[in-house]
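Can't paste images in this forum, so I'm doing it all in text. The chain is below; anyone willing to post the predicted structure tokens underneath?
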Amino acid sequence: MTETRAGFAALIGEPNAGKSTLLNQMVGAKVSIVTHKVQTTRARIRGIAMHENAQIVFVDTPGIFRPRRRLDRSMVKAAWGGAADADVILFLIEAHRGLTDGAQSIIDNLREHAGKTPVALVINKIDRVKAEQLLALSEKVNAAFEFAATFMISAEKGYGCGDLMDWLAQEVPAGPWLYPEDQVADLPMRMIAAEITREKLTLRLHEEIPYQLTVETEKWEEKKDGSARVDQIVYVARPGHKGIVLGKGGETIKAVGQAARAELTEFMGRPVHLFLQVKVRENWLDEAERYNEMGLDFKDGDA
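Text version of the structure:
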């Protein structure tokens, strides 16, 4: 009988390093929010990939940055928590940005948080630079930390991801699979649905508003015809934000709802009826219940 292997691989790096894109590429399904805006992943999102006899559970952590608000502090704590619990750590940097101050800070913290856990350097977005720059960057970063392996990839295009998956499949410990073979995420569908809607809002809106709003799935109803009715609330922090989210004549929230509904329907493989409301909740950034909905620990945000 073939020996099975299973384990957790934590993705860490600066905001926008491509962690969510890599997770979705490895899992083969969209389970993590991907936008051009930084700090969009709030919870520790787990995507599950099967490779030969191994099951690899990817933990997509929030990007590590200098926290200012309670929400920021909770996100950074969640990121390091994801790394501490993993069997393997993947440290992502962007090829065209190189070893930034933020990346160096993460490396410094890795010495404290990684312990004996193997850490692989993953240089992402390799299609943006020349080969000689890549080699020089790899040498520089490897001189700063003793990485178990180095991979050069394009998470968006899939380049190099097969080699990374081969390595991970051998690196995770022997043992039974942790999830059913056909499961792609361990987040409840209510949270995945909320993340999808929040992504559409983030793409549609600009400036500070995306970080001042959250989406909660208030109600999930399974219909007899196989479809699902999903009711969600978009909470905004200020009265002025409500009008922006709604848009003129409600056109913004309508467009967001249509885009989120289409993606949810595709993701679930059955019809979804999505209903959105926008409510002002000025202190949601200081409410423990909102953090629990996002999979974050409210206490981790204490200064």
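The first strand starts at residue 5 and ends at 13. The CA atoms of residues 33 and 40 lie 7 Å apart.
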